[in-house]
Write the structure tokens for this entry.
Amino acid sequence: MSGLQERVSTGNANRVPAGDDAEGKAATGIGRWEHFAHMADIGVRGIGPSREIAFAQAAQALCAAITEPELVRAAILFEVDCKANEDELLLVDWLNALIGEMSEHRLIFSKFEVSISGVQLHGKAWGEVVDPRRHHPAVEAKGATLTELKVLRNADGLWTAQCVVDV
């Protein structure tokens, strides 16, 4: 995974021990994000009690592939509206809107809010201009892809939103 360790986090990314495999894991009970391996690229997965939280956590996973979320101040607000007839395409549009904004304005985000009504998504992302000395970017996200793309409600009632991001 290009020097990245698998990291799992939720909410405010408080570190909590959870056994031998606990390195890089955190929990708050609201939702969590994960990275999963995919050849030269990276999988991002958001998990939460609602679609909206799963989408926000997927965005958190995207940005956590670039830098540690704790290093990013929520100083600049970016808002975006996306529309797609399928949840999966809505996720890709949301993540690609964030990637486009990060690329165009050299931003990195650390806080997300998502609302979904029918086929419309309204997203908010807070972050700041990248400071390479402080943020130490590990990769550059180029685009969310259709590979391993899933948005579904699991048997346990939690939503999962995931895809592979080209880095």
Observations:
- Confidence is low (pLDDT under 50) at residues 1-28.
- The chain is about 20% helix and 35% strand.
- The longest helix spans residues 87-105.
- The radius of gyration is 15 Å.
